[in-house]
Specification:
The complex is a heterodimer of chains A (about 550) and B (about 150). With about 550 residues, chain A is mainly alpha-helical. Helices cover about 70% and strands about 0% of the residues of chain A. In chain A, helix 8 runs antiparallel to helix 10. By secondary structure, chain B is an all-alpha fold. In chain B, helix 1 runs antiparallel to helix 2, helix 4 packs antiparallel against helix 5 and helix 5 runs antiparallel to helix 6. The chains are: A mainly alpha (about 550), B mainly alpha (about 150). At the A-B interface, helix 5, helix 6 and helix 7 of A face helix 2 and helix 4 of B.
Chain lengths: ~550, ~150
């Protein structure tokens, strides 16, 4: 079964990669989009997969902290699912960047390059939070695997669980704040942080039920938790109805009504039925995110369907690929747990590292804040705790591993890692050439007269995020990041002329970014002519 | 919300707190009882509160967290641990609820958050809770609820 699912994953990756290629080459125009929605299906999938990613480690960590016995039976599967799901989730914000190769602009470096990370942007918050969560989840699972041989590592695992517990809540809360900063009323709610966390937990439980069934195992307490979570979420849906008058029967049906059938013992005994319920919950949670982000009827494009293949394919291939790899190394790894150990870190070490982490986060803030005091203090909050967690998690992990592996090996591996990561850090810090070369040759002004399609695509990928697909301006985006843009009218275009406007595109002006190096001069001219066309259509 | 309704909300939140963990139930039944209590708080807020006030968006969640905090006083095992967690939940709801509203330009009341934060630290010093201390902690929470 595991091998079959791995192969299914690989097969699904074929249309998945096509989808990714389409999305990256065409840009936002490749998926169903409306100016009032802006985010579209990529963000639906992002919130869904990040929810699954949060729940895996969270379940394992919180159950470890609470010393719940069945934690040992689900922990490794849950932790592995986090790693796979987080990789899937991280694709979608990168797609939203437009130029994926410039993802390092999201790294909150100091302002040496005059490209200060925009702390008002949820993209920065997500990047930092997800990156730190991925790192500590990897530390956590590696510690888990090592603790099977070295029981003394349980103390490190417990400390990491304590770091992960608030971190995972923090990360999903940050996802809910992505919505809070928008101007869309439907995306706002002060109850969202807890609502999102519950939703993530619910979908994660369903995923764990499915993954355990694949292993031919069953944990009744998880099914109980699934029922409990369905009730709590049901109440939140009622609250949403009170707040916004929004009620989605399909979400309630798949996410609440179907789950209640688990109360019937005859049905609950059936493996097929338990699988059915877990799928039903996953469908419900995907639909919940969909109706929240895209409340309107909108015609889907092939890429919107392709996200399913990409997400499921990548998840299955990464999860079961890692599963097979770990199992090959230790065939019983999923069925054994570490011996009990009462070892604890001394208070001196514990508080020393935590104090160091606090100092690290505060120092980072103190050095960066004076560089851009226009960013409100509350926009820094989403970033500071993950940085604290990264410092503390890395320190405890290094300390734990140092105590069990041969010193030579430890220094060799960590030295190599420092070299690689330091090199990457330096390369990202230095930045790259802004000229994309090949890409800018794809579209020429000649083709504009023969076929309108290429320049339309260029507009969609380079200009539409601010100026709107039809030049009407993307008010939501503008509101968040820049002042209001001017209306697109023939009169205004004529007053400036093609030459002057071409220079504005290339060199930038006021809040308009310079696009020299990313579009060629003929392309800039083509875009200006396209703007004329849009203005004519408008009038 | 008027002070009278706020006081009524406090009483309503206190009501289920004393018997929340008394009889052993399955996880699912615990979940259902929590959900029903939360639903009651939501209905109370909906019918008595001014729904135009953005603070009402997380008011029932605050009631729920308050109820959970008080319910930890009835626990016999790991009381300090669960007290910290319950106050952490209350803090989380208020902190991020307020932050969400702050992005919309609503004013933030920092004092209740500071008091809750110190409450989380404070309970660590009362590992052995005699009845007098429990009463003191209860009064502290009711004070936070009523005044902020």
């Amino acid at each position: 079964m595991v091998k079959k699912l791995f192969i299914v994953g690989l097969i699904l990756l074929i249309p998945g990669i096509w989808t990714l290629f389409q999305a990256l080459s065409i840009g936002p125009a490749s998926w169903a989009l409306d100016q009032s929605l802006f985010w579209g299906t990529p963000i639906v999938n992002f919130v869904f997969w990040i929810g699954l990613a949060h729940a895996g480690t969270f379940l394992s960590a919180i159950l470890l902290i609470l010393e719940v016995r069945f934690q040992k039976r689900i922990s490794l599967v849950a932790e592995l699912s986090t790693i796979a799901a987080i990789l899937v989730a991280s694709i979608f914000p990168l797609i939203h960047l437009g130029i994926v190769s410039r993802f390092y602009f999201l790294i909150p470096f100091f302002n040496e390059r005059n490209i200060f990370a925009n702390f008002s942007s949820p993209l920065i918050w997500d990047f930092v939070a997800i990156f730190v969560y991925l790192c500590i989840s990897i530390f956590y699972i590696v510690t888990h695997l090592l603790s099977l041989k070295h029981a003394s590592l349980l103390k490190t695992r417990k400390v990491l669980a304590w770091i992960l517990f608030p971190l995972v809540l923090w990360v999903h809360t940050i996802v809910s704040l992505d919505f809070a900063v928008t101007t869309n009323n439907l995306w706002q709610g002060a109850y969202f942080p807890i609502y999102f966390i519950l939703g993530a937990l619910f979908s994660g439980l369903a995923l764990v039920v499915f993954l355990l069934e694949v292993q031919k195992r069953r944990v009744r307490k998880i099914e109980e938790l699934l029922i409990a979570a369905s009730w709590l979420l049901f109440v939140f849906w009622i609250w949403e109805f009170f707040q916004k008058g929004v009620w989605h029967f399909e979400v309630v049906f798949f996410g609440f009504v179907i789950v209640q059938l688990l109360w019937i013992p005859v049905l609950r005994k059936q493996k097929a039925f338990r699988l059915f319920v877990s799928f039903s919950v996953l469908i419900s949670m995907w639909l919940e995110r969909y109706v929240l982000i895209i409340p309107l009827d909108i015609e889907w494009l092939p890429v919107d369907y392709g996200w399913f293949a990409l997400g499921i394919g990548l998840f299955l291939s990464v999860f079961f690929g890692l599963y097979l790899l770990i199992q090959k190394h230790n065939p019983l790894v999923f069925y054994v747990s570490a011996e009990e150990s009462n070892e604890k870190y001394s208070r001196k070490v514990l508080w020393g590292i935590l104090a160091g982490a606090v100092v690290f986060a505060l120092l980072y803030f103190a050095l960066n804040y004076p560089l851009d005091t226009s960013v409100p203090l509350m926009n820094w909050i989403p970033v500071l705790f993950p940085l604290f967690s990264l410092f503390a998690g890395l320190s405890f992990f290094a300390l734990g591993v140092y105590s069990v592996v041969p010193k030579k090996q430890f220094f060799l591996v960590s030295g190599l890692l420092v070299l690689i990561l330091g090199g990457a850090f330096g390369a990202f810090y230095a930045g790259g050439d802004t000229n994309l070369g090949v890409e800018s040759k794809i579209i020429s002004v000649e083709r504009v007269s023969k076929n309108n399609r290429p320049v339309k695509d260029l507009w969609a990928s380079r200009c539409a995020s601010c100026h709107g697909l039809k030049g009407e301006g993307n008010r939501k985006f503008i509101y968040e990041f820049y002042p209001e843009i001017q209306d697109l009218t023939l009169e205004r275009l004529n007053s400036q002329g093609e030459d002057s406007l071409t220079q504005v595109v290339l060199k930038g002006r006021a809040f308009m970014n310079p696009f020299e190096g990313r579009v060629s001069e003929p392309e800039a001219r083509a875009l200006i002519r396209y703007m004329y066309q849009l203005a004519e259509e408008k009038e | 919300m008027t002070p009278l309704i706020n006081a009524l909300a406090c009483l309503l939140a206190l009501l289920p707190a004393s018997f929340l963990w008394t009889s052993p139930r399955s996880i699912a039944r615990y979940g259902i009882s929590q959900a029903l209590i939360l639903l009651c708080f939501m209905l109370f807020t909906f019918f008595t509160g001014d729904m135009e006030d953005p603070m009402m968006e997380f008011y029932p969640l605050k009631m729920w967290a308050f109820c959970l905090c008080v319910s930890t006083l009835t626990l016999t095992k790991k009381r300090t641990f669960f007290m910290t967690l319950a106050q952490g939940l209350w803090f989380w709801i208020v902190f991020f609820g307020s932050l969400s509203l702050a992005y919309r330009g609503e004013p933030v009341n920092n004092l209740s958050m500071i008091l809750l934060f110190f409450g989380m630290i404070g309970v660590q010093f009362f590992k052995q809770n005699p009845k007098e201390i429990s009463l003191g902690i209860l009064i502290y929470w009711v004070g936070i609820w009523m005044l902020f």
